[in-house]
Design goal:
Distance between the termini: 15 Å
Shape: globular
Structural class: alpha/beta
Bound molecules: zinc ion
Strand content: 15-25%
Helix content: 25-40%
CATH architecture of the largest domain: 4-Layer Sandwich
Radius of gyration: 22 Å
Number of strands: 23
Oligomer: single chain
Number of helices: 14
Largest sheet: 8 strands, mixed
Length: about 450
């Protein structure tokens, strides 16, 4: 039997990235995610996986965002016996991300009176199956299926995976693709050796602010916010966005472009993630950034940065009545410490809320971005009088032109390109552009569809 690909999640963004790949002799998954920005107890997430878990040989994870790893420990509860392949930074990051997720899942499950999806023991079991892989080194993940990962410049350790069967048919899954050029991560590498490619489409219909404009835009917004005299809130994902913001604040303060005000990093998770970034900087960052690191000792830490790990330290931030920046998770204001700060500061007209990342439809962050005056945050109605500033240039995702370029680089070999992992409208928009500009068959996959993958492209089986 030829190679087959089943879209088990990520086609509709409800359950996160999850792909089943079956060869003549081996079976593997790429990613096993959970969707963010929603209540974690949605039934679909708790349902058994739609495949026979004990017969899987391997799980390859593209990167440590929860929408790519969030259900992986649940595999252990369903009898997963295979190996887990990830890059070394992904291993470290997924450990901290999953333990934080387990804590939130447990809280949510308790409040709904249901058992948690998984706990720390399942995470320990999953982590014990990990074999780390480096970019560009091919390995056998499952009988008859060899894999190679390449950097995608999306977050530290992120990678695409190309799977080749014994006939030499190549299927690539991009995971998430970073916007280029990145400030300190290396740029995404092209995939030119796949017959069929599944690519992300999160920003498939959007254009990011030009990279050159985004720092002045941020600086000017910070100045406006400081003129209002109040607190600046930044809901930020712990991975990548937080580090990127720290990097830029440090540079802007060093250059005297903004006043040196306290920056509270109020997130134990982001503090730990930043440590992982520092640990791997030397080997994974671009040469210019490594040089800067040697020169400055740290890319992310600066004298006005205050890391508040403990609950007490977090609570004490409110005693600082001067202008300040508070950065905390969750990135879509759907939980975590940012909620408490938003409840306190959003009713205050001197506050500025800066939105620097993607906000999923329905999330509190998306509602705030859309300008609602009343929002429900952590079970409390909040009257919004703060100024909301939205930025599009800080996304960790390639925009519509970056994605089209990535699809272009897959030519001439890729005969079919699937656009997945985005909202349906952006997946459709990207597919249409790929078809129009590149003349390649581009398909928006639907959940649970199974496709046969051959050297001439993909053919729908069910
Ligand atoms: Zn991601």
């Amino acid at each position: 039997m030829a190679l087959t690909l089943t879209f088990c999640g990520g086609g509709d963004t409800v359950t996160g990235s999850n792909f089943l790949i079956e060869g003549a002799r081996g079976k593997m998954l790429v990613d096993c995610g959970i969707e963010q920005g929603r209540d974690f107890v949605e039934k679909e997430m708790y349902a058994p996986f739609p495949y026979d878990v004990p017969s899987l040989d391997a799980l390859v994870i593209t990167h440590a965002h929860l929408d790519h790893i969030g259900r992986a420990p649940k595999l252990m509860r369903e009898g997963f016996k295979g190996k887990v392949y990830v890059t070394p930074p992904t291993r470290d990051l997924m450990d901290i991300m999953l333990r934080d997720s387990a804590r939130i899942l447990a809280e949510n499950a308790r409040s709904h009176g249901i058992p948690a999806m998984y706990d720390d023991r399942d995470i320990d079991a999953l982590m014990s199956r990990i074999e780390t892989v480096e970019y560009h080194k091919e390995w056998i993940a499952a009988p008859g299926l060899s894999c190679i990962m390449r950097n995608t410049g999306h977050i530290l350790g992120s990678g695409s995976v190309r799977i080749t069967d014994e006939d030499g048919t190549g299927l690539a899954l991009t995971g998430d693709i970073g916007a280029t050029p990145n400030v300190y991560l290396r740029d995404a590498e092209a995939i030119d050796d796949a017959d069929v490619m599944v690519m992300e489409s999160v920003y498939g219909d959007r254009k990011n602010t030009e990279k050159g404009d985004r720092v002045p835009e941020l600086r000017d917004a910070l100045k406006r916010a400081l003129a209002r005299g109040g607190t600046i809130l930044i809901p930020a994902f712990s991975l990548e966005r937080t580090q990127l913001m720290l990097y830029e604040f440090s540079n802007l303060m060093d250059a005297g472009e903004i006043p040196r005000i306290p920056v509270y990093l109020d997130s134990p998770l982001a503090i730990k993630a930043t440590e992982v970034y520092e640990k791997y900087a030397e080997n994974y960052f671009r040469p210019e950034a490594v040089e800067e690191l040697h020169h400055e000792k740290s890319l992310f830490k600066f004298p006005f940065l205050k890391e508040t790990t403990s609950r007490e330290a977090s609570m004490a931030i409110w005693q600082d009545h001067g202008p300040k920046i508070i950065m905390a998770g969750a990135g879509m204001s759907h939980g975590g410490r940012i909620g408490r700060h938003e409840q306190k500061y959003l009713p205050d007209p001197t506050t500025t809320l800066m939105i620097v990342g993607y906000q999923a439809p329905g999330s509190p962050g998306r509602l705030l971005q859309d300008g609602v005056k009343h929002v429900r945050i952590d079970k409390k109605d909040v009257h919004v009088r703060a100024t909301i500033e939205s930025f599009s240039g800080w996304s960790a995702h390639a925009d519509r032109d970056g994605l089209l370029d990535f699809a272009h680089m897959a030519q001439p070999r890729a005969k079919t390109i699937f656009t997945a992992l985005g909202e349906p409208s952006s997946a459709r928009f990207l597919a249409q552009r790929i078809h129009e500009y590149l003349g390649v068959t581009a398909i928006v996959p639907e959940k649970n569809q199974k496709w046969e993958i051959t050297k001439v492209g993909a053919k729908r089986l069910s």
